[in-house]
Structures are given as structure tokens and as C-alpha cells.
Amino acid sequence: MMNIRPMVVEDVPAVLALERETFSQPWDEEILRSEAVAANRVYLVVEDSEGTINGYGGLFLNGDEAHIVTLATSLRGRGLGTRLMLGLVEAGLEHGARHLTLEVRASNRTAQELYRKFGMAPVGIRKEYYTDEDALVMWAPDVAMPEYRARLDEIRRSLR
């Protein structure tokens, strides 16, 4: 059984290990600690019944926009990314977000498909966003509308 909960500073060592396992340019411990307690940030972790953290995600709230800043899972194909993304979107909505945005590696088709499931569409390219690659900017407008909430309900049903 997987549980999604807010990230706390005590989770940083496990999240740091996940960062290093998942990303070619991982955040360091200092950044993770500051992000875990920063205002206008929401970070979630997914842990198994033994307390092992198998994923985490975060967003930055800026006015009516929720900017997804990271999403990482160690177990592929089990719906963890979808569950984390759903939790982040719901957290954004709870904080008044009306739009979602993020940057994703141009080559990361798997992540792009996940974000498309949540109604996000490509709107531009950030050249050299990563030291070794461009980023695709994705955007979902009007996420507070009933139509978007119906999409979230459908995603939620698909996870059962």
C-alpha cells in the first residue's frame, strides 16, 4: 500500500537519494531542505507500508499559477507518477491555482505523456534550460473549471 503525504525536513535524506538516482542534475541537500520549508511551496512524498520513500513531487505557487518543479519516482509503471501529479494538482487547486505549468526535458516522452493526461500541452521551448538539453514548456489553463475537475475525477477513478 502506498501513502502520499506532505514532505517534511526529515525526509530530505531519502529524497536526496531519489534525486541522485533519478536526475542527471540532482538538487543538493541544502536546496531540498530550504524547499521543504519554503512558503508558497508544496512537496509530497509517496511511501510504502514500511516507510520507504518511492517518489516525491513539488510545486511553487505564484498567484493563480502552480508551477510543477519536480516529479520523481523510483518505481516505474505502478501509477506513482500519476498519483503524485494528482496530489500536486489538487494541492495547487486548494491554494487557488487556476493554471498549471512546468518544464520537462524535450527528450522525456514518458513524462510528457503523463503531463498530457493532466491536460497539459506544449506551449514553447526554453533553450538550454538544462545544461545538456532544452526544456519543453507545458501549460494547462483553467484548471479550476468544472471540466478540468471532471478530468481529475476520471484520473482518480482510473487509479482504483
Topology:
Elements: E1 3-6, H1 12-22, H2 29-37, E2 41-47, E3 53-62, E4 65-73, H3 80-94, E5 99-105, H4 109-117, E6 121-130, E7 133-140, H5 146-158
Helix pairs in contact: 1-2
What does this protein structure show overall?
With 160 residues, the chain is α+β, with helices and mostly antiparallel strands. The chain has one domain: Aminopeptidase. Helix content is 36%, strand content 34%. The protein has 5 helices and 7 strands, in the order E-H-H-E-E-E-H-E-H-E-E-H. Helix 1 (12-22) crosses helix 2. The longest helix is centred in the middle third of the chain and has 15 residues, at 80-94. The protein is globular, with a radius of gyration of 15 Å. It starts with a strand and ends with a helix. 26% of the residues are buried.
- CATH class category: Alpha Beta
Low-confidence stretches: none
Helix content: 25-40%
Tell me the strand order in the biggest sheet.
Answer: 1-2-3-4-5-7-6
CATH topology: Aminopeptidase
Number of distinct helices: 5
What's the overall geometry? globular
List SSEs in N-to-C order. EHHEEEHEHEEH
Instruction: For the record, give the distance between the C-alpha atoms at the N and C termini, rounded to a whole number.
Output: 12 Å
Keywords:
160 residues, alpha+beta, Aminopeptidase, seven-stranded mixed beta sheet, 5 helices, 36% helix, globular
Brief characterization of the structure:
With 160 residues, this protein is of the alpha+beta class. The chain has helices at residues 12-22, 29-37, 80-94, 109-117, 146-158, and strands spanning 3-6, 41-47, 53-62, 65-73, 99-105, 121-130, 133-140.
